[in-house]
Structures are given as structure tokens and as C-alpha cells.
Write a structure and sequence with these properties.
13 strands; 231 residues; single chain; flat; alpha+beta; eleven-stranded antiparallel β-sheet
């Protein structure tokens, strides 16, 4: 019995000593370095001159963006120009869709705190500053009702994802209740050693307004990134 107890005490200690990185906190300046890295890659997004955009609401395979000789264009999966009504809803510079904007992703109303390791990433939690939500004739900021988490690679200080969730249901105004809220953005390099860009995003929101339940879900993916030609 003594040997069994001794084994049970020693085994957890051996497991902890075998993976010290998971027991340690990340470097104290990692979050600040991630801010600087996100800004660098935000600026480097200008190196991208083409990508495929596939939103969940499009049933025809999405759209292709190409920047050539100072002229930008959107075409659909059949290589046909996008309808003007849709083109007007897209940013003047579509690369804004893929930029890892640090002020939107990492701006915090409190001190970001390390909460855990996950798949080799340091996970930080914080109170985001601006989380605008619009729909049904209403527009409001729900930042005080949600919590953000970001995953940061400790070796490169690159942000791998940001997820925003609501710990509980809340009322952003007198006539709307948000029962569930979750959004997530994932990032990856556009090509080896290239700028880090948005790879995909997802949202799932359940809102109750005027005694009706609204399920708002969607996603979009970005792929096929091409470099601008030198010169």
C-alpha cells in the first residue's frame, strides 16, 4: 500500500516536470509584443494583391479580388464582374478585410491576463473596448457585456485567433436581449514568411426582440493569397 501511495504522489510530479512550459507563465511582455507584431502585419497586408473571399451567404463559390496595375476588381466564381450594388458594400481597399488590426483585436479596457496554455498558445483574456452590434434598426456597443480571448504564439508573438463571447445573456437596450453571443477570427500567414492575415471568421448570435427570436449565424473564409509583383 505504501508503494502504491508513493507512486500516486510521484507520478503527477513527474508529469509536471516533464512539461515545464505548460506550468510556466509566458514572458511578461508577450501581449505587448503581440500588439507590435499585429501592427507590423497590418502594414504588411499591402503585400497581398489577390485573394478568394467565400462568405457563407453566397451559394456560388464566393468572390475573387485582384489588384493589378493600380486597378482593383472583384469577380465572382465564374470570373464575371461583381454586381455594382454588392461592390459598393465592400471596402474601398478590400485588403482591409484581411488586416489583423491591433486596435480592433487587442485594445483592452483592463489589463490582459494570462489564463491558460492551449495547443501551445498562450491564451489571454481581457475586456474589449469596442464591439459594435447593429441590426433591426438598432445600433449599440456591447463591449461591457462580453469577454475577449486571444491566442498568442509565444515564439513569434503572432496572434492566432481572437474569440469574443458573452458569459451570460444581457440587454443592450430596453427592447433587445442577447441570449447567446460568440464570434471568432482565425489568422495565418498568407504564404511562408508572408504577412499574417485573416484566414476565416465565424459568428453565432441569438437575439430576442419584439417577442421574436433571431438566430444570426455566418462565416467567411479567405484563401488563395497572391503577392504583389515586385516593382
Amino acid at each position: 500500500m505504501k508503494n502504491v501511495l508513493r507512486c500516486c504522489v510521484i507520478l503527477p510530479a513527474l508529469l509536471l516536470s516533464a512539461s515545464p512550459a505548460l506550468a510556466d507563465e509566458p514572458p511578461a511582455d508577450l501581449f505587448q509584443r503581440a500588439l507590435a507584431t499585429a501592427q507590423l502585419h497590418n502594414e504588411r497586408a499591402g503585400e497581398v494583391c489577390g485573394f478568394a473571399y467565400a462568405p457563407s451567404w453566397d451559394e456560388n463559390g464566393g468572390f475573387l479580388y485582384r489588384q493589378e496595375a493600380e486597378a482593383a476588381s472583384w469577380v465572382d466564381a465564374a470570373a464575371q464582374p461583381v454586381e455594382p450594388e454588392l461592390a459598393e458594400r465592400l471596402p474601398d481597399d478590400p485588403r482591409e478585410m484581411i488586416r489583423p488590426s491591433p486596435e480592433r483585436l487587442l485594445e483592452s479596457a483592463d489589463t490582459p491576463r494570462f489564463v491558460r496554455w492551449e495547443d501551445g498558445l498562450a491564451i489571454y483574456q481581457f475586456q474589449p473596448v469596442r464591439v459594435p452590434l447593429a441590426g433591426g434598426g438598432f445600433s449599440f456597443d456591447i463591449a461591457e457585456n462580453v469577454v475577449a480571448e486571444v491566442g498568442i504564439d509565444p515564439e513569434t508573438a503572432m496572434v492566432a485567433f481572437r474569440e469574443v463571447t458573452a458569459p451570460s445573456s444581457f440587454r443592450p437596450n430596453a427592447v433587445v436581449r442577447i441570449r447567446d453571443y460568440q464570434t471568432r477570427v482565425n489568422f495565418r500567414p498568407a504564404w511562408p514568411d508572408g504577412p499574417v492575415v485573416v484566414a476565416d471568421n465565424h459568428y453565432a448570435i441569438v437575439a430576442i426582440a419584439m417577442l421574436q427570436t433571431h438566430n444570426l449565424t455566418g462565416s467567411a473564409s479567405y484563401s488563395g493569397f497572391s503577392r504583389c509583383e515586385a516593382g
